Amino acid sequence: QVQLVESGGGLVQAGGSLRLSCAASGRTFSSYAMGWFRQAPAKEREFQAGISTTGISTIYADSVKGRFTISRDNAKNTVYLQMNSLKPEDTAVYYCAVKGVYSGSYYDSSNYRSWGQGTQVTVSS
After folding, report:
1. pLDDT digits (tens, 9 = 90+) for 19-77
2. Shortest CA distance to 29 belongs to which of 5, 54, 57, 49?
3. What does the alpha-carbon distance between residue 23 and residue 4 come to, in Å, rounded to a whole number?
4. CA 50, CA 35: separation in Å to the nearest integer?
5. How far apart are CA 110 and CA 60, in angstroms?
6. What is the distance between the alpha carbons of residues 32 and 102, in angstroms, rounded to a whole number?
């Protein structure tokens, strides 16, 4: 399966920005749609953003629309999440994932087959 490693998390003040990266192994990265999820303490893992195989189509959770941007560079086997205007409620562990079901919803975590270990994002007031 595809191996994923997230990076770019850290501590940032409210209103600030971070860019998360997800580096994938293998030569078939471009065959998979990708997604970003987050999980805060005592919360379910929640969809944030998804991107199609070519990057031509993107989708976002309502809570981050207009603030977060997902992108990918298939030549570098990397997917990104640019996070702007961060809020304390964005504090969570952020995970990237490989979408394993072509026609399934991006929102449903059960439609993903490989996950990274996550990177912590903490937004202070």
Report:
1. 999 999 977 899 999 999 999 999 999 999 999 999 999 999 999 999 999 999 999 99
2. 54
3. 6
4. 4
5. 17
6. 8
